[in-house]
């Protein structure tokens, strides 16, 4: 992480969620490489969390440009496509404050949240294959989609694929435990 200039604290924070990085043996990258690529692209105060591509950074970019610039910078540096979804810090904190499908005793690794670019809308979900999913397992509260996966994430409705098809964009999924760790980074 590079040293911050005094004015950088005034820049808005953004959460960048990468899709498909460091999953299995493919598309491997160190978080130091990821941070360096984003810093070279103009992001500052870049903080990475876990190896699965969770980033908190500051930027003067418009929110509509963050995902594109991050994805392009990472693709150039790493040599493979890195889809990215960005979320303004205030929006991220709001949508991760409480999971609407959480009940006492549920394993927080089985509670997930899908982020999409373009952002999820109720019309989009209604027009997708997700409309047939149980309200007990999936709940769209724009700009995200909440999911409970009682039989494991790998056996659940593939909300990422459904959202990619419905939006023509990029979606990514994170479990509740990971999202709470990102919240903690945002509060420091």
What's the helix and strand layout?
Layout: E1 13-18, H1 31-40, E2 44-49, E3 54-58, H2 63-78, E4 84-88, H3 89-95, E5 111-117, H4 122-127, E6 138-141, E7 144-148, H5 159-167, E8 170-175, H6 176-186
Antiparallel strand pairs: 1-3, 1-4, 2-3, 5-7, 5-8, 6-7
What does this structure look like?
This protein has two domains: 6-91, SP0830-like domains (Alpha-Beta Plaits, 2-Layer Sandwich); 96-186. It is 31% helix and 23% strand. The protein is built from six helices and eight strands; from the N terminus they run βαββαβαβαββαβα. The protein has helices spanning 31-40, 63-78, 89-95, 122-127, 159-167, 176-186, and strands at residues 13-18, 44-49, 54-58, 84-88, 111-117, 138-141, 144-148, 170-175. β6 and β7 form a beta hairpin. α1 (31-40) crosses α2. It is globular, with a radius of gyration of 16 Å.
